[in-house]
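User: Hi! Is it possible to get a structure for several chains at once, not just one? Here's what I have:
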Amino acid sequence: MDSTGVDAGLLRSRYRLTKQRSAVLHALDDGEHLTAEDLLDRVRRQLPGVSLGTIYRTVDILRELGLVQIFTHNGMAARYEASLSKHHHLVCDVCRDITNVNVPTLGPVIKGIAAQYRYDDVDASLTVTGRCASCAARAPASTFEGTVEDRD
Amino acid sequence: MDSTGVDAGLLRSRYRLTKQRSAVLHALDDGEHLTAEDLLDRVRRQLPGVSLGTIYRTVDILRELGLVQIFTHNGMAARYEASLSKHHHLVCDVCRDITNVNVPTLGPVIKGIAAQYRYDDVDASLTVTGRCASCAARAPASTFEGTVEDRD
DNA sequence: CTCTCTGCAAAGCATTTGCACATTG
DNA sequence: CAATGTGCAAATGCTTTGCAGAGAG
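Assistant: Yes, the chains can be modeled jointly so their relative placement is included. Here is the combined structure:
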């Protein structure tokens, strides 16, 4: 089993390095903001017998070890991504597409809030919603402010 | 039925103003970031027969009308609040307490992202997590950086 | 060899939905 | 009175969990 790459974090931890966990770790590099089902599909290409329960148990310990970030928005299924770099998300209200985005200017904003409310060890997640360029091109004009809600 | 206060938005809409909906609207003023169950409890004080299904259907149309904001974080149950003013949330990792927070400096950050990625009609939700002052006081010292994860 | 992990299947929980009856405008 | 809304209970979808056997160290 590969013990020098993405697996290193697990090896150093109090958890055992199993082939299922290694496969999940590798699958995480195989796409952005993957759902548990997405991960299951990818993991099963290598290791057909793996169960969804194992995916959930694995991402949970990877989160505890700081190796994955979990993204949720409204009631949608959780998305998992390797903790390579801190980033935030842009979600299209129309097509539900998710884009990763770096927001370097957010740091000072968060520091300010932490200081004002006396919070320690702060982290933050910013989710920007709106209509992406392709959906705007495809859709009827919208000249008014505020939420654009179709009544289905 | 009161038709001049919080009910006005519903009255002007294509939806009927029922006593259940009015009660939900009033219940929303009765606390911050309330869960569906919280709303149900409050609504039932006035109107004992109301069902959870009605709460969910009602908050959904209120969201569509822009009268409530919905806050979710990780897998937690959704929280509902009247759309009085735009605000964001501070969530304590330890006690799970939620604090509303105004973040006036966020506007330019979001505008920048919208421009860069060509998104229209953008909105944003910022959730800052960390350890609140009372939990920090109560807990063992934490001098290292990063997430503080107790193994239960 | 012991402790941890896994697959399976069942349970859990928040939310949604179908339907027959009640209510609104 | 026609259209819409409601209560109830069942269904849904994601996630978690108990257990007995498999695998890691």
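The longest helix of chain B spans residues 52-64. Residues 15-16, 18, 20-21, 49-51, 53-54, 57, 75 of chain B lie near DNA strand D (CB under 10 Å from a C1').

User: Great, thank you!
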